[in-house]
Amino acid sequence: MGLWLATGWHAPAFAQTSNDSYSAMLTYLDSSAIDGNAMQNTQGVTGVNQATGNGNLQGNLRAFAVGDQAQAMIQAQQHAHAYASNATLYASATISGHAYDNAQGIASINQVSGNNNTQLNGVAAALTKQGIREATDGTLSATVSASAGGQPSSNPHAQAGGTRSVGVDPSAMEGFDGVMQLNQVAGSGNASDNLLLLSAPPSSH
């Protein structure tokens, strides 16, 4: 079983105008991408946290327990405040190519472009033999809250509308087998999570 952690930044290819310098464009253009053959044929437990922007909080978190009266616990608290004053005008988060093709196991992905977002995945598992002690809702505890805004924007493009998009290309994740947890966010002030709680006794046969 292996554990992978990947973080990255991917600059979008937008045409530069005469009024915008490259450094100025970076204040309102955010793009994150997982592509190529990333995580292809991986096995076991993999985790990716990829973010562009400011004030974003990400997790993954996992807990496993195997044995008599086994217990599993996972807890998390996230609080995002108005850290970034500039609003992202153009934001995108994509997974394409052959990423995660034929991968197996548990894959947890947090991908975000923007500001002041919170993302969490989770996963808790317990497998017991005798005197089954199940994991309750209290055993897997996750609290996610987001608070964004409250600061005047110094970005002249902030109120222009813009576009925000997320997507997974059909060619990605082909043949994946296992548990896939995915949070994709483009924008600001969003809270997203995935929680999976499993507790099962082994078969007596």
Automatic annotation (TrEMBL):
Domain of life of the organism encoding this protein: Bacteria
Location of region: Disordered: 143-174
Residue ranges, compositional bias (Polar residues): 143-157
Name assigned to this protein: Adhesin
